[in-house]
Amino acid sequence: MTYKDLDIRENNGIVTLTISREKALNALNTPTMLELRHFFTEDAAGRSDLKGVVLTGAGEKAFVAGADIKEFLGLDAESGQALAQRGQDVFFAIERFHRPVVAAVNGFALGGGCELAMACHLRVASEKARFGQPEVNLGIIPGYGGTQRLIQYIGKTKAVELLLTGDMLSAADALRLGLVNYVVEPGAEVEKAVELIEKIAAKGPIAVAKVIDAVNAYFQYDLDGFAREVANFGQTTATEDFREGASAFIEKRTANFQGR
Ligand code: CAA
Q1: Potential cystine with 57: which of 26, 36, 113, 223 (Cβ 3.0-4.6 Å)?
Q2: How far apart are CA 47 and CA 189, in angstroms?
Protein backbone atom coordinates (compact mmCIF):
# COMPACT_ATOMS: atom_id res chain seq x y z
CA MET A 1 0.00 0.00 0.00
CA THR A 2 1.16 3.53 -0.71
CA TYR A 3 0.64 5.53 2.45
CA LYS A 4 -0.63 9.11 2.06
CA ASP A 5 -1.78 10.12 5.50
CA LEU A 6 0.83 8.19 7.46
CA ASP A 7 4.47 9.12 7.39
CA ILE A 8 6.32 5.93 8.26
CA ARG A 9 10.00 5.97 9.12
CA GLU A 10 12.01 3.09 10.45
CA ASN A 11 15.28 3.40 12.30
CA ASN A 12 17.10 0.56 14.03
CA GLY A 13 13.93 -1.58 14.22
CA ILE A 14 11.70 1.18 15.59
CA VAL A 15 8.97 2.61 13.39
CA THR A 16 7.86 6.17 13.95
CA LEU A 17 4.42 6.45 12.47
CA THR A 18 3.24 10.04 12.14
CA ILE A 19 -0.36 10.83 11.31
CA SER A 20 0.11 13.59 8.80
CA ARG A 21 -3.01 15.62 8.16
CA GLU A 22 -1.78 18.71 9.92
CA LYS A 23 -4.31 21.09 8.35
CA ALA A 24 -7.15 19.04 9.87
CA LEU A 25 -5.21 18.61 13.14
CA ASN A 26 -4.54 15.00 12.06
CA ALA A 27 -8.22 14.05 12.29
CA LEU A 28 -8.82 10.40 11.44
CA ASN A 29 -10.79 10.05 8.22
CA THR A 30 -11.52 6.82 6.33
CA PRO A 31 -8.29 6.71 4.28
CA THR A 32 -6.24 7.34 7.45
CA MET A 33 -8.05 4.57 9.31
CA LEU A 34 -7.53 2.17 6.39
CA GLU A 35 -3.83 3.02 6.32
CA LEU A 36 -3.55 2.43 10.06
CA ARG A 37 -5.33 -0.89 9.66
CA HIS A 38 -3.06 -1.92 6.81
CA PHE A 39 0.08 -1.07 8.73
CA PHE A 40 -0.84 -2.96 11.90
CA THR A 41 -2.62 -5.95 10.33
CA GLU A 42 -0.57 -6.42 7.14
CA ASP A 43 2.75 -4.61 6.81
CA ALA A 44 3.97 -4.86 10.39
CA ALA A 45 1.93 -7.84 11.61
CA GLY A 46 4.13 -10.61 12.95
CA ARG A 47 7.38 -8.84 12.03
CA SER A 48 9.88 -10.32 14.46
CA ASP A 49 12.62 -7.83 13.56
CA LEU A 50 10.57 -4.89 14.77
CA LYS A 51 11.26 -3.51 18.26
CA GLY A 52 8.16 -1.35 18.47
CA VAL A 53 6.15 1.51 17.06
CA VAL A 54 5.91 5.15 18.11
CA LEU A 55 2.65 6.80 17.09
CA THR A 56 2.55 10.58 16.90
CA GLY A 57 0.90 13.46 15.07
CA ALA A 58 2.35 15.92 12.57
CA GLY A 59 2.91 19.52 13.64
CA GLU A 60 3.09 21.08 17.06
CA LYS A 61 -0.58 21.50 17.79
CA ALA A 62 -2.27 18.12 17.69
CA PHE A 63 -1.64 14.45 18.18
CA VAL A 64 -5.07 13.69 16.70
CA ALA A 65 -8.08 16.02 17.17
CA GLY A 66 -10.57 13.19 16.74
CA ALA A 67 -12.36 11.29 14.07
CA ASP A 68 -12.94 13.51 11.04
CA ILE A 69 -16.18 15.31 11.89
CA LYS A 70 -16.66 16.35 8.25
CA GLU A 71 -17.18 12.68 7.32
CA PHE A 72 -19.92 12.23 9.89
CA LEU A 73 -22.68 14.37 8.46
CA GLY A 74 -24.03 11.76 6.05
CA LEU A 75 -24.12 8.97 8.62
CA ASP A 76 -27.26 7.09 9.64
CA ALA A 77 -27.72 4.52 12.38
CA GLU A 78 -26.42 1.66 10.23
CA SER A 79 -23.44 3.38 8.65
CA GLY A 80 -22.61 5.06 11.99
CA GLN A 81 -22.47 1.66 13.64
CA ALA A 82 -20.28 0.27 10.85
CA LEU A 83 -17.90 3.21 11.19
CA ALA A 84 -17.58 2.72 14.95
CA GLN A 85 -17.05 -1.03 14.51
CA ARG A 86 -14.28 -0.47 11.98
CA GLY A 87 -12.63 2.06 14.29
CA GLN A 88 -12.78 -0.33 17.22
CA ASP A 89 -11.34 -3.15 15.10
CA VAL A 90 -8.39 -0.98 14.03
CA PHE A 91 -7.72 0.08 17.60
CA PHE A 92 -7.96 -3.52 18.83
CA ALA A 93 -5.31 -4.41 16.23
CA ILE A 94 -3.05 -1.79 17.85
CA GLU A 95 -3.83 -2.95 21.39
CA ARG A 96 -3.12 -6.56 20.38
CA PHE A 97 0.06 -5.78 18.42
CA HIS A 98 2.89 -8.12 19.38
CA ARG A 99 5.41 -5.33 19.96
CA PRO A 100 5.02 -2.25 22.17
CA VAL A 101 3.16 0.64 20.59
CA VAL A 102 3.85 3.93 22.37
CA ALA A 103 1.80 7.07 21.79
CA ALA A 104 3.93 10.22 21.73
CA VAL A 105 1.17 12.73 22.39
CA ASN A 106 2.42 16.07 21.12
CA GLY A 107 -0.78 18.15 21.44
CA PHE A 108 -4.56 17.72 21.37
CA ALA A 109 -5.67 14.10 21.80
CA LEU A 110 -9.43 14.47 21.56
CA GLY A 111 -12.23 12.06 20.72
CA GLY A 112 -10.78 9.42 18.40
CA GLY A 113 -7.32 10.86 19.19
CA CYS A 114 -7.67 10.18 22.90
CA GLU A 115 -9.08 6.76 21.98
CA LEU A 116 -6.09 6.09 19.72
CA ALA A 117 -3.64 7.04 22.47
CA MET A 118 -5.52 4.76 24.88
CA ALA A 119 -5.28 1.83 22.45
CA CYS A 120 -1.48 2.11 22.58
CA HIS A 121 0.38 0.16 25.25
CA LEU A 122 2.11 3.21 26.74
CA ARG A 123 1.65 6.98 26.48
CA VAL A 124 4.24 9.75 26.69
CA ALA A 125 2.72 13.24 26.70
CA SER A 126 4.21 16.61 25.99
CA GLU A 127 3.48 19.23 28.66
CA LYS A 128 1.28 20.84 25.97
CA ALA A 129 -0.89 17.75 25.42
CA ARG A 130 -4.62 17.90 26.13
CA PHE A 131 -6.86 14.86 26.45
CA GLY A 132 -10.63 14.62 26.21
CA GLN A 133 -13.71 12.95 24.84
CA PRO A 134 -15.71 15.96 23.59
CA GLU A 135 -18.19 13.95 21.50
CA VAL A 136 -21.20 15.05 23.59
CA ASN A 137 -20.54 18.59 22.32
CA LEU A 138 -21.44 17.22 18.88
CA GLY A 139 -24.44 15.24 20.10
CA ILE A 140 -22.74 11.88 19.68
CA ILE A 141 -20.77 9.56 21.94
CA PRO A 142 -17.25 8.14 21.60
CA GLY A 143 -17.25 5.26 19.13
CA TYR A 144 -13.67 3.99 19.08
CA GLY A 145 -13.59 2.58 22.61
CA GLY A 146 -13.55 5.79 24.66
CA THR A 147 -16.40 4.92 27.02
CA GLN A 148 -14.61 1.70 27.94
CA ARG A 149 -10.88 2.43 27.94
CA LEU A 150 -11.15 5.77 29.75
CA ILE A 151 -12.76 3.95 32.71
CA GLN A 152 -10.06 1.27 32.50
CA TYR A 153 -7.31 3.87 32.82
CA ILE A 154 -8.65 6.50 35.22
CA GLY A 155 -11.61 4.87 36.97
CA LYS A 156 -15.33 5.51 36.70
CA THR A 157 -15.60 8.71 38.80
CA LYS A 158 -13.44 10.96 36.65
CA ALA A 159 -14.12 9.09 33.40
CA VAL A 160 -17.87 9.64 33.62
CA GLU A 161 -17.31 13.34 34.38
CA LEU A 162 -15.06 13.75 31.33
CA LEU A 163 -17.39 11.77 29.07
CA LEU A 164 -20.44 13.77 30.16
CA THR A 165 -18.90 17.25 30.24
CA GLY A 166 -16.49 16.92 27.31
CA ASP A 167 -13.89 18.72 29.45
CA MET A 168 -10.21 18.41 28.59
CA LEU A 169 -7.44 17.15 30.87
CA SER A 170 -4.03 18.81 31.02
CA ALA A 171 -0.96 16.62 30.66
CA ALA A 172 -0.26 17.05 34.39
CA ASP A 173 -3.76 15.89 35.30
CA ALA A 174 -3.50 13.00 32.82
CA LEU A 175 -0.33 11.90 34.61
CA ARG A 176 -1.89 12.30 38.06
CA LEU A 177 -4.93 10.23 37.01
CA GLY A 178 -2.85 7.48 35.41
CA LEU A 179 -3.84 8.15 31.81
CA VAL A 180 -0.24 8.69 30.69
CA ASN A 181 3.06 7.13 31.73
CA TYR A 182 5.28 10.19 31.40
CA VAL A 183 5.07 13.92 30.75
CA VAL A 184 8.06 15.51 29.04
CA GLU A 185 9.07 18.87 27.60
CA PRO A 186 7.43 19.70 24.25
CA GLY A 187 9.48 18.08 21.49
CA ALA A 188 10.94 15.35 23.71
CA GLU A 189 8.00 12.94 23.54
CA VAL A 190 9.19 10.83 20.59
CA GLU A 191 12.66 10.49 22.10
CA LYS A 192 11.18 9.29 25.40
CA ALA A 193 8.93 6.83 23.53
CA VAL A 194 11.96 5.46 21.65
CA GLU A 195 13.83 5.12 24.95
CA LEU A 196 10.98 3.03 26.37
CA ILE A 197 10.89 0.79 23.30
CA GLU A 198 14.68 0.31 23.43
CA LYS A 199 14.41 -0.71 27.07
CA ILE A 200 11.70 -3.27 26.29
CA ALA A 201 13.65 -4.53 23.24
CA ALA A 202 16.31 -5.90 25.58
CA LYS A 203 13.74 -8.27 27.11
CA GLY A 204 12.55 -11.61 25.74
CA PRO A 205 10.35 -10.72 22.75
CA ILE A 206 8.04 -13.71 23.19
CA ALA A 207 7.61 -12.80 26.85
CA VAL A 208 6.78 -9.22 25.86
CA ALA A 209 4.11 -10.40 23.40
CA LYS A 210 2.68 -12.78 25.99
CA VAL A 211 2.48 -10.03 28.63
CA ILE A 212 0.56 -7.84 26.16
CA ASP A 213 -1.76 -10.75 25.43
CA ALA A 214 -2.37 -11.60 29.10
CA VAL A 215 -2.99 -7.96 30.06
CA ASN A 216 -5.48 -7.60 27.21
CA ALA A 217 -7.29 -10.72 28.47
CA TYR A 218 -8.03 -8.91 31.75
CA PHE A 219 -10.23 -6.49 29.82
CA GLN A 220 -11.91 -9.03 27.54
CA TYR A 221 -15.03 -10.19 29.27
CA ASP A 222 -15.28 -13.52 27.48
CA LEU A 223 -11.77 -14.50 28.59
CA ASP A 224 -10.37 -15.64 31.92
CA GLY A 225 -7.22 -13.54 32.29
CA PHE A 226 -5.78 -15.75 35.00
CA ALA A 227 -6.21 -18.82 32.80
CA ARG A 228 -4.62 -16.93 29.91
CA GLU A 229 -1.68 -16.04 32.14
CA VAL A 230 -1.22 -19.72 33.07
CA ALA A 231 -1.27 -20.73 29.39
CA ASN A 232 1.11 -17.94 28.36
CA PHE A 233 3.47 -18.67 31.24
CA GLY A 234 3.63 -22.30 30.13
CA GLN A 235 4.41 -21.25 26.57
CA THR A 236 7.21 -18.92 27.67
CA THR A 237 8.86 -21.65 29.79
CA ALA A 238 9.16 -23.78 26.64
CA THR A 239 11.13 -21.14 24.70
CA GLU A 240 14.86 -20.96 23.96
CA ASP A 241 14.61 -17.39 25.24
CA PHE A 242 13.73 -18.64 28.70
CA ARG A 243 16.77 -20.99 28.72
CA GLU A 244 18.92 -18.06 27.62
CA GLY A 245 17.40 -15.64 30.16
CA ALA A 246 17.78 -18.08 33.05
CA SER A 247 21.33 -19.09 32.00
CA ALA A 248 22.33 -15.44 31.66
CA PHE A 249 21.03 -14.74 35.18
CA ILE A 250 22.98 -17.67 36.64
CA GLU A 251 26.13 -16.82 34.67
CA LYS A 252 25.80 -13.12 35.65
CA ARG A 253 25.75 -11.84 32.06
CA THR A 254 23.31 -9.95 29.84
CA ALA A 255 20.80 -12.18 28.06
CA ASN A 256 20.90 -12.33 24.29
CA PHE A 257 17.34 -13.15 23.27
CA GLN A 258 16.56 -14.53 19.80
CA GLY A 259 12.77 -14.53 19.95
CA ARG A 260 12.56 -18.32 19.78
N1 CAA B 1 -12.43 16.63 12.28
C2 CAA B 1 -12.24 17.36 11.15
N3 CAA B 1 -11.56 18.51 11.12
C4 CAA B 1 -11.04 18.96 12.28
C5 CAA B 1 -11.19 18.27 13.50
C6 CAA B 1 -11.91 17.02 13.45
N7 CAA B 1 -12.06 16.26 14.55
N8 CAA B 1 -10.58 18.96 14.48
C9 CAA B 1 -10.07 20.06 13.90
N10 CAA B 1 -10.34 20.08 12.58
C11 CAA B 1 -9.98 21.09 11.59
C12 CAA B 1 -10.86 22.32 11.73
O13 CAA B 1 -12.08 22.14 11.06
C14 CAA B 1 -9.97 23.37 11.10
O15 CAA B 1 -10.07 23.23 9.71
P16 CAA B 1 -10.28 24.55 8.76
O17 CAA B 1 -9.01 25.33 8.95
O18 CAA B 1 -10.43 23.97 7.39
O19 CAA B 1 -11.47 25.25 9.29
C20 CAA B 1 -8.56 22.94 11.51
O21 CAA B 1 -8.66 21.56 11.86
C22 CAA B 1 -8.02 23.70 12.70
O23 CAA B 1 -8.96 23.57 13.76
P24 CAA B 1 -9.51 24.83 14.59
O25 CAA B 1 -9.55 26.06 13.73
O26 CAA B 1 -10.78 24.42 15.24
O27 CAA B 1 -8.34 25.00 15.67
P28 CAA B 1 -8.46 25.63 17.12
O29 CAA B 1 -7.06 25.84 17.59
O30 CAA B 1 -9.38 26.80 17.15
O31 CAA B 1 -9.13 24.45 18.02
C32 CAA B 1 -9.48 22.18 18.73
C33 CAA B 1 -8.47 23.23 18.20
C34 CAA B 1 -9.90 22.57 20.16
C35 CAA B 1 -8.78 20.85 18.76
C36 CAA B 1 -10.71 22.17 17.81
O37 CAA B 1 -10.27 22.00 16.46
C38 CAA B 1 -11.70 21.09 18.11
O39 CAA B 1 -12.46 21.18 19.06
N40 CAA B 1 -11.73 20.03 17.26
C41 CAA B 1 -12.72 18.99 17.32
C42 CAA B 1 -12.47 18.05 18.48
C43 CAA B 1 -13.56 17.01 18.55
O44 CAA B 1 -14.72 17.30 18.72
N45 CAA B 1 -13.15 15.74 18.43
C46 CAA B 1 -14.08 14.62 18.46
C47 CAA B 1 -14.45 14.21 17.06
S48 CAA B 1 -15.74 12.99 17.01
C49 CAA B 1 -14.97 11.53 17.41
O50 CAA B 1 -13.77 11.46 17.53
C51 CAA B 1 -15.90 10.38 17.54
C52 CAA B 1 -15.29 9.07 17.86
O53 CAA B 1 -15.03 8.73 18.98
C54 CAA B 1 -15.09 8.12 16.81
Answers
A1: 26
A2: 25
